[in-house]
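Lab notebook, bench 4. Still working through the backlog of constructs that have no structural model yet. Next entry is a single chain of 743 residues. Request: give me the structure tokens for it.
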Amino acid sequence: MYFKKFDHPGNFVFDKSFDYQMEVLGDDVFKLTVESPRWHDNFSQAELDEAAFANLPSRAELQVSEYSLSLQAEGGSLLQSLPERMFGVAGSKWMFCFAHRPHMQFYGLGEKNNGFEKTGVRSKFWNTDVFADFHMHQIETGVTDPMYVSVPYLLVKQGNVYCGILADNPFDAFVSLRAQERIENQQGVATEDYFMLGSTDGRPTLYFIYGPSLADTTRKLQRLCGCHARPPLWALGHQQCRWGYKSARELAELDQRYRQANIPTDGLWLDIDYMDKFKVFTFDPVHFEQPKREFAELRRKGRRSLVILDPGVRIEPGYPVYDSGRQENVFCRNREGGEYVGFVWPGATVFPDFSMPEARDWWARQTAMMLGKSDLDGFWLDMNDPSTGSSVLDEMLFQHGQREHGSYHNQYAFGMQKATFDGCLRHRPERRPFLVSRSGYISTSRYSAVWTGDNIANYYHLRQSIPMCLNLSLSGIPFCGPDVPGFGGDPTPGLARDWYKAGFLFPFFRNHSIKNARKKEPWTFDRETCGVIGHFIRLRYKLIPYLYQLFVEHEQKGDPMLRPLFYEFDDSDELPLGMIDDQFMVGSHIMQAPFVEPGTRSRRVVLPGAGSWFDPWSGQWFDGGQTITVRRDRRTTPVFIRAGAVIPMLRQVPDISLQPELLRDLELHVFAPPEARTALQFSYQADDGESFAYRQGKVSETIATIRIDGGKTSVETKSVKEDAGAVKFTVKRNCLFEAMTES
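Model written out:
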């Protein structure tokens, strides 16, 4: 595949002979399908809930004819196709072209490191193994496009009105967003003012979503694609991994070192070295004599154990996983009808065909059997792009060799996620599975979190992690985060401090390192750096109830945890929030503006909105609607809390790890200026942090009404339900972060 060559409308025919099927799903969500003998099917296995919009009125209108397409709302046109060039084809390829307007801005596109706002971007959607498909210099400091996750979703911003376009198509889709054509990357060529979205094959199916606000648009997308269920509580804690951990003894040593450092950590993760000859669903008998007992001992101490799963199955007759897969005919085929062979860690491997239900069932059974022998707490799914080493991907065929590789490539990881999730439920149907995946597709959030893949310990990757995760969050994959403080390379102490400061409230929070890099556990740095890292980990744990409530609200409404500033505040010419990619909101009330450039002594921070903002390090209040300058401090990071915020926090930071009962013994931190006179209402929900019982109503729900009259603060609480135990609150006002995390 050419990653840097793109289709152009000049090579497409725009005729009027196609059959356009338009459906009004409801609530300003529309589906458009193009029928033609050119495409026999779509092949997408994305799980899209069209019924979620049934019987809901629409204010917008999608108008489609053989000549034009227009999305109309509030008396005007939001999207308009190019005159005479709405829909074009070139063989099996297709594209929609839209007129660009001067005030348009573009976001979304899932996982991309080509900037926050996407005007001028051309991009493809093809899940890649970045370290294998790009050279290291480009990986370290450049754009690697495409990346691991393919979500062809375009968010269009026009002032403070939003709409989205989702292409439900698993082939290698592409976009060009007012991008300039070039000759040998030397000379620009004048182009028309348009943007387009298309694919190389597959029946065209688009969903148009009108907001009008960004929150409305994102909630509707998430409702269509599926929200992430509440994760197990421990999954929101700090996680520790390194390529090279391989034994129960090393995990026990990690447990002891974190205790000595007084740093809470919930998850201890094993990379490929735990396996017997890198064979999936095995343990090296030298390093794990009794996996179930050894992992149970770690759980008794408060730690959760997770291991990597790769899809490649070693070709080895007598290896039960390989033998059973062959017997059940679940592996991908090549063009001559044999098993497709690629190369992953165990050497020559075959690959389950996750496009087939019988292959997913087979993988689920293997997963359940492994859990039966180990009772692990979760899995991280790697190499599922799929990565096949030096073997050509196009020769990997699906559906017993009947479907070309491109028809399922981008959704290969999604099938693996579904199958692994199913296997976890077969073993423990009452326990919420926890999976994190390198690659993904539309509706991945129904089954798995995503980490942003193999990054590098440098400031470029630190800075890029913010816009990357913001756009993932706007594209229906909110449970995401980068490896901290960078997977490859050796971070300086300053970079390690800055990355922990920037990432301590990302949904997924894992320290991970490549095998040949320096060790990156907190205590491997100097005493000051270890202290700073420990402080921010403890501060995250203090704020776990707030983060957990964001997941509760996400499952109910669809809001992501990480949000750009313009998710919560209107954009304006005075404060152009749409171009700010190094600040972000965590929920509605906490804003971060971390230092993400080396050597800078100060930075500008935009304080949006008409209200006030509290600096929890100094105790100072600032008026909104302005830009201030903050100075770098080795022990703090710029964080501001919105006036009127009620933030639930743990009463005490745990010494070891999270326990569900901590969700029921809380401090309510209220943030209001000294002169404020207001009443605030806050609803809080707790559960057992582990099972799906909350879906049957086994929760504890409390409503707190806080009245503020200048320096006086009073609270009234009303218990709505106590099915998960009584909830206790202590109210505090305008507390400083340093005081909150004293150990």
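Notes after review: Residues 269-431 form a domain with the TIM Barrel fold (CATH 3.20.20.80). The longest helix spans residues 357-374. Flag for follow-up if needed.
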